[in-house]
Design brief:
The chain is an alpha/beta fold. It has eight helices and ten strands. The chain has a six-stranded mixed beta sheet with strand order 6-7-8-3-9-10, sandwiched between helices. Bound molecules: adenosine-5'-diphosphate and magnesium ion.
Amino acid sequence: MAKLIQLSDVYKIYNPGENEVRALDGVSFTVDRGEFVAIIGQSGSGKSTLMNILGCLDVVSSGQYLIEGFDVSTLDDDQLSDIRNQEIGFIFQGFNLIPSLSAVENVELPLIYRGMGKEERRRLASEALDQVGLKNRKTHRPAEMSGGQQQRVAIARAIAAKPPVILADEPTGNLDRKSGEDVLAILRRLWREGRTVILITHDSKIAAAAKRVVTISDGKIVSDISRSDAEMDAMEQMAPAAKEA
Ligand SMILES: Nc1ncnc2c1ncn2[C@@H]1O[C@H](COP(=O)(O)OP(=O)(O)O)[C@@H](O)[C@H]1O
Ligand SMILES: [Mg+2]
């Protein structure tokens, strides 16, 4: 079977010419199905650029990106949006919820775009909110919830359609420590359930939640370290489980 994600000598150059920025400067790495990877780097190191490419939201300047064996540069817009909708659940730092919609309506929105019927939509959205501990907040609007609860709605929205890949860019960046830990516990559980989780962060404490940590600096990968299964198990014994809202 093809690797889930395969980047080969990828460059992303903004403003080609005199003031060019090499946001990605020859990046090669692969991610297998079922991995839990953190990509860590300082501000400006190229993390969001990498996330946009991995998520098929942007294209490489040169090099190759294969997802499930498909060369992203050969796909048309419809095929790219199919991959984004069906393969990837996105979680962002800023939650990106629609203020006028309730929690369950926010979670349902991408399912509408997938053409799913009303009943199935409501069922999946409701299940996803249960999974993130928001059983009792389904009819609340974003303004009626804490930041941690809003991010959990955003996670429910990302996972409702059960995409195989979760791509999270600084998902704890706007949260207090406790809410951040809850979010990490949810990501870890999703990974244990078989999803591939890619977590992008500038914070080494957050990155330490993952089994594999890839460090990026000035657009280059400078280290790639994996923990053993035993170390992961030991860490999870220590980590708090996510609580109900
Ligand atoms: N659209 C853009 N146009 C020009 N430069 C950009 C653009 N987006 C990002 N950059 C530059 O690329 C580098 C990497 O940015 P980014 O991927 O956002 O890093 P990070 O997410 O790690 O903070 C930075 O130097 C940034 O200023
Ligand atoms: Mg960023």
